[in-house]
Every structure is written in C-alpha cells, then in structure tokens.
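Agenda item 2: alpha-ribazole-5'-phosphate complex prediction
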Amino acid sequence: MTHASFSDLATLRQACLSPCPADENAASTVAAREAILTKPAGSLGRLEELVAWLARWQRSATPTLDHVQCLVFAGNHGVVAQGVSAWPAEVTALMVDNFRHGGAAINQLARNAQAKLDVIALEDLRMTGDFTQVDAMTPEVFLRVVDAGFNAVDPHASLVCLGEMGIGNTTAAAAVALALFGDDAENWAGPGAGSDQAGIMRKISVLKAGIARHRNYLADPLEVARRLGGHELAAIMGAILAARKHNIPVLLDGFVCTAASAPLYTLHPDGLAHCRIAHCSAEPGHIRLAEALAQKPLLDLGLRLGEASGAALVVPLLRAALACHTGMHSFAEAGIAS
Ligand SMILES: Cc1cc2ncn([C@H]3O[C@H](COP(=O)(O)O)[C@@H](O)[C@H]3O)c2cc1C
Ligand SMILES: O=C(O)c1cccnc1
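Presented output:
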C-alpha cells in the first residue's frame, strides 16, 4: 500500500514551487579537490562538473553510485486512435512483459550499469483520454499517477535513471512541449517509433487540434501535463519531485522523458537542477527541448528508443568520473610541482 503524497492539485503545485536548494558546500569541496589532482585544471571537462553535480544533490562531498535505480513507467494513450503511432497500443503491455522477462534493451543496459530495474505499469495500462476530444486525465487520475511516480523512487538510491514505455507517447510529449514552449507543431513532431511521413502529418494535425481544444488552460504547466500528457509522463514528474526530496540526482532519458520533466522547469527555474539530460535523442524536437530547459545533453549517439536506455548508458560514464575523482593522486602526493 503506497501513501498518498499529493492530496490535491494545490499541494502538488506548492511542492513544485518550492524545490529545496542544493548543497553548495559539498559541490565546492569536490571542486577544490578536483583542482589539486594530477591533471591540467579542467582537463576532464564535463566529468568534473558531473562529480560536483552528484555531490551537490547527494549533499555529500564524497558522492557514491552504490545503489542506482532505473525506473521505467508504462502507460497507454487514447490519442493512438488518431493513427499517430506505427504500432498498436497492445505493444505497451507486451513490452512490459518483455521487461519482466529480461528481454528488452533496458534490461541489458541496466545490468551493464549495475543498476536495479523497476518497471511500473500505471492504471493497469488503461488508456488516457484522447486529448483531441477530452482531457487526457481527470484531476483524480493525474494526482494518482504523480503519486505512483513519487512513491516508486527508492529513497535510498544514489542515482535514479528515468524512462518510459507507452505507444503514442511521442505525440503526448510533443503536445506538452508545444503547449509549454510554443513554436510550430511541425518542429515538435517526429517519427517516434517509426511513423512514416503520412503518420507524422497526422501527428501534426493532432497536435494542432489538441492545442486548439485546450488553449484556454495552457498557461498553467500542471494543466498542460494533465490535459495533454500521459500517465507515465505524470509519474516521471512525481519521481523527479521525490528524488529532490530524498537527495537523489536524476538522469533523464530522451525526448519523452524530457518533455515529462518540462512542467517542473516552467513552474520553477530551479525545479530540474538535480536532473541531467543523459542523451540527445534522434527525435528531432529533443535538442530544441533541451535548449528550452537550458541543458546540454551528455551523449549524442542517435538513440531513439526511450525505456531509460540513454540514461542507463550514462551510468558507467558517471562511475568513470567518480573513479578519477576519488582515485587520482594530488600534485603533492605525486611530488609534482604545480
Ligand atoms: C517494440 C517497441 C519497443 C519500445 N521501447 C520503447 N519504445 C518507444 O516508442 C514508443 C513511442 O513511439 P510512438 O509515439 O511512435 O508510439 C514508446 O513506447 C517509447 O518508449 C518502443 C516502441 C516499440 C514499438
Ligand atoms: O527519445 C525518446 O524518448 C523516444 C524516441 C522515439 C521513440 N520513443 C521515445
């Protein structure tokens, strides 16, 4: 039995508007040690910044990666009825089974990262409402899935990798991005899991119809998430809030995961400071979305999968960064005049 964390939208909004501050002391202790290690200053590039980021959000000058949790949320989307995915909605449940039997890409990548994989199927994989016709979620369902995401985070994790599975969710993600950041629907619509040009054109029409239908409510990022998003996207938002509360840094995966996180940034500019975008998805809107969140994705490998695959791939990189930081000798220890 999980406990309810957000009893109403006002409580959730308050949590989003008051993210706890970083531990800058831990980050500066790490930076001070970085400066005396046997290398030219700054020569490990972003690896140095990543160790400081871990320290800042774990609130420890000696960050660890002992307990890495990969958390994949699954949900189904009513908007699939509009022909926006190359795949039928049934594939969501089949992939959840595949995750449970160890057969998906994320099973291999999580094991490779020495991470625990938790898969949460939301609302028994019932569909959201088709956002061209109705709200994707009622306030009750929205709060329930945000809660499910919040409660899925292991409070003892050293790092959480977030990801998703949900046929049709690149359309929900694009709708959220379009509502929050504007621009043309064409710039947020991509092939997702393999839509052809005709499928992308349908997606663009669906995005425009969704924005038109909900236009009077889109100034509020929580309404954007509730009306246009999805169960797994809302759960990702809840997980990000929980991670902040439990001092856990977060790796966001690709386009869908980043779009899910975006309402927290528009509600508070510091709301995603404990999160890093792990990689730049091949989904064309992702780089634009990362820029809107003032982030630079860590890897760019042309992945377009989701499932937390890109996030899990960054874990070995973080282990490498930590190994240098903790294992290297100082100039004094090595007898090198600096
Ligand atoms: C077999 C399979 C495995 C997947 N794993 C992740 N996705 C990814 O593709 C889906 C989104 O694309 P769209 O919006 O075009 O439906 C999501 O489930 C996402 O996680 C998959 C998709 C498929 C088909
Ligand atoms: O980057 C993503 O999140 C993505 C891309 C394609 C399909 N599903 C997810």
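Discussion summary: The radius of gyration is 20 Å.
Owner for follow-up: CH.
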